[in-house]
Amino acid sequence: MFAGFGRPVRVASPEGLILLKLLAARPRDLVDIEELLAANQGRLDLAWVEQEWLTLFPTDDSRWQCFRQAVAEYYDRPAPA
Question: Structural domain boundaries of the chain?
Answer without folding.
Answer: 12-75
